[in-house]
Amino acid sequence: MRTEWGTFALILMCYAGWLIAGLVWATPFWLLGLLILAVLAAFHTSLQHETIHGHPTRWPPLNEALVCLPLACIFPYRRYRDLHLQHHRDEHLTDPFEDPESYFWSEADVRKMTDFQRHVFALNNTFVGRMVIGPLLTIIGFARTETRRLARNEPGVRLAWVLHLPGVAGVLAIVTLVFGMPLWVYAIFVVYPALSLTAMRAYAEHQAAENVGARSAIVEAHPLLALLYLNNNLHIVHHASPRTAWYDLPALYADRRQQYLTANENTLFLGYRDIARRFAFSVKQPVGHPYIGRRSQGSQTVRYPHISKAADD
């Protein structure tokens, strides 16, 4: 694997742009600065995702170091890495027990919820709800599960948090001492909107389906949003070939578009405006997983049908 200098340059540009935008806080253009900070914090999570899959170098410790300053602050890199790689066990995609990135609950858990909880999670399954309350629910859920894992001293969890805290301290020091920005402003107007932008991408990328291929969608996004998400909007392409670099995904999709659409049963959105039009205040799928009522048993190797050759073979 070669060093991918374009991705390396994007990481440097992300950090440089974040610093410049932060300095705009002390100028009459502070609102523009906040907007750019939020976008770059969201973009940073896309860059972290790229490093998790082995980019831009062949050395994982170097890739981790390149994105170790967590602009969105919330999630330790190594926890994101471990949970996301677990998510890539595609035979368990959307399973509320096995997929750590699933937004579904088991039917048994739904029955235990109060009416208020069911309404909240149903709202979270609308496009607007996912962007407005989705980040808060994610933070609360993540904090609860991580607290349990820390109490049980699960392997690697404490180390992930120990490595994360100096990075958070560095971000907060820059925000307060260099930008002169109150921490509450950064939390409310940078971190939360960044998580909302990430939630916008994640909202439609998976769905419950019996066919593994149909669990991952395609969003033919505007080029600027595709860049923000490093083409992860072409989500079945990423899942079918997770080691493919972000800049190779569009060509791979263009070359095999009909094969991917056949594999995912034509789960296609013509941009995020299309998603908003269809699901702004409509529940996309139920809170309870429609196919999984109990813990999944066993595993199998998933091969996406109708896709003749994975790009990373």
Automatic annotation (TrEMBL):
<protein>
    <submittedName>
        <fullName>Fatty acid desaturase</fullName>
        <ecNumber>1.14.19.-</ecNumber>
    </submittedName>
</protein>
<feature type="domain" description="Fatty acid desaturase">
    <location>
        <begin position="29"/>
        <end position="261"/>
    </location>
</feature>
<keyword id="KW-0472">Membrane</keyword>
<keyword id="KW-0812">Transmembrane</keyword>
<dbReference type="GO" id="GO:0006629">
    <property type="term" value="P:lipid metabolic process"/>
</dbReference>
<feature type="transmembrane region" description="Helical">
    <location>
        <begin position="121"/>
        <end position="143"/>
    </location>
</feature>
<dbReference type="InterPro" id="IPR005804">
    <property type="entry name" value="FA_desaturase_dom"/>
</dbReference>
<feature type="transmembrane region" description="Helical">
    <location>
        <begin position="6"/>
        <end position="24"/>
    </location>
</feature>
<feature type="transmembrane region" description="Helical">
    <location>
        <begin position="29"/>
        <end position="47"/>
    </location>
</feature>
<dbReference type="Pfam" id="PF00487">
    <property type="entry name" value="FA_desaturase"/>
</dbReference>
<keyword id="KW-1133">Transmembrane helix</keyword>
<feature type="region of interest" description="Disordered">
    <location>
        <begin position="292"/>
        <end position="313"/>
    </location>
</feature>
<dbReference type="GO" id="GO:0016491">
    <property type="term" value="F:oxidoreductase activity"/>
</dbReference>
<keyword id="KW-0560">Oxidoreductase</keyword>
<feature type="transmembrane region" description="Helical">
    <location>
        <begin position="163"/>
        <end position="192"/>
    </location>
</feature>
